[in-house]
Amino acid sequence: MLKSLSGILAGAALLTAVTASAQAADNEVTIAYQTTVDPAKVAQADGLYEKATGWKINWRKFDSGADVIAAIASADVDIGYVGSSPLAAAATRKLPVETILIASQIGESEALVVRNGAGIDKPEDLIGKKIAVPFVSTTHYSLLAALKHWQIDATQVQILNSRPPEIAAAWARGDIDAAYVWDPALGRVKESGKVLVSSTEVGKWGAPTFDAYIASADFSKAHPDVVTAFVKVTGDIYADYNKDPKAWTANNDNLKKVSQLSGAKVEEIPALLAGNHFPALPEQVKLLGNNTVDALAKTSDFLVQQKKVPAALSDYHPYVTDRFAKSAIATN
């Protein structure tokens, strides 16, 4: 995936002012989302983004951040949901994007699950086993970080590049021994497996991960009001959830909407939401600075060590901005 991604990123010049002008004329924006479990799915289901922007939104579902990056590079998507690992890879290859929102700080919602009966009781039992993971994803980064922590060379295991739906299917067939993935595939594999490690623990070992919304630099420059409205709606729904998570998840309508757009089972959603942290607008301003810049730099250094990208940049500040979070707060 990374080789094909690099080829597409090389053509990033396709993101031109002509594209931005056409979007302005049509008042349409294409936003990429993934099947993650998060409060913003309710705002998406309720059409709050359309109401706030006044624009028609074409929502497109993707199975991995690498695919979202490729779509943004080819000007098919204007705003997209990606993990910190594909974001670091994209920034390192100088794709003209900006991180406009931290969608979640990842914890228990991503995990390495081993199959029952596969003979994997401890980390060293992974040697020689087949582990599926979406390449250039947050779970790929976490898997490599976990193997490094356990002093297991990545060449000692069989790491297979698979998207979440493919992982669930391969697991059902018995083709793989373990998988590092997110929901809803995570829930499927946990039904006949056990968690060996989650991203909460891997983060404590020095490799934290997060999800983010990014926008093409051309689009955010041409339509800052649309990006600000998008950030405000997301920040407000996060604040509503954080105010009282138990009350929020007691609302069955909320759970059904999240389930509809994520594929997760309704009864699983409260625990899955609790597995991540969703920063509201004031915290977004704090995070969208050196915190995120440093995280991207560390992730990129790790990807260089793993030979996933050729070299890290000296500065990742151009790929992170807090101006839309600040503008969103100012509109309150």
UniProtKB/TrEMBL annotation:
Residues 1-24 form the signal peptide. The keyword Signal applies. It comes from the Bacteria. SMART domains: PBPb (SM00062). Its main location: periplasm. Keywords: Signal. SUPFAM superfamilies: Periplasmic binding protein-like II. Gene3D superfamilies: Periplasmic binding protein-like II. Residues 28-245 form the Solute-binding protein family 3/N-terminal domain. It is found in: Periplasm. InterPro entries: Peri-bd_TauA, Solute-binding_3/MltF_N, SsuA/THI5. CDD domains: PBP2_taurine. Belongs to the bacterial solute-binding protein SsuA/TauA family. This is Taurine ABC transporter substrate-binding protein. It comes from Dongia soli. The lineage of its organism: Bacteria, Pseudomonadati, Pseudomonadota, Alphaproteobacteria, Rhodospirillales. The gene is tauA.
